[in-house]
Please model this.
Amino acid sequence: MKTVAVFSEATLPGRFAADLEALFFNLIRVEIAPVDLTEAKALAYDARRGQIDAEALLDILKIASGFDKTAYIVEGDAYVRGLNFVFGVAYGDKALVFTARLRSEDEGLYRTRIIKELAHELGHSFGLGHCPDRRCVMRFSNTLSDTDAKGPGFCGYCAAKLRRALRK
Model:
């Protein structure tokens, strides 16, 4: 079974780990811990843009020892070169989700957006690319409406590919 450490600056509901595990067919074990990323975010902050450089933050943050993947839920707004903003980013065994643009007065909607984006970025870390299926969580989100429109789950093609990766 693959293991995923999730370090979060945001408060997550008690069932968050179980819900994320279920999206990955209960083939992953998720452990969640609070984290303060103030110092790391300051090092990756681009004052000219008023945003966090997501790629710089990826370089700064560590992979948790004893885990297959490490994810961070970051309070802030971020970008990568060539894009005005990103909801998240993944490279290798690390994934980041940024909360600033996912916020909603509806707490349930906000949590759903976080889990969708985290599932999407972890999907990348397990080898999945973007998907053309509008309902698949691996579809690229260019806007918040795109995130809201897609489901939290994987389409059949992505699910099959993910299951193979999780069983390796």
Q: What stands out?
A: The helical segments are 16-23, 38-44, 54-60, 107-125, 144-149, 156-167. Strands lie at 2-8, 28-34, 45-46, 51-53, 69-74, 78-79, 88-91, 94-98. The chain has one domain: 2-167.
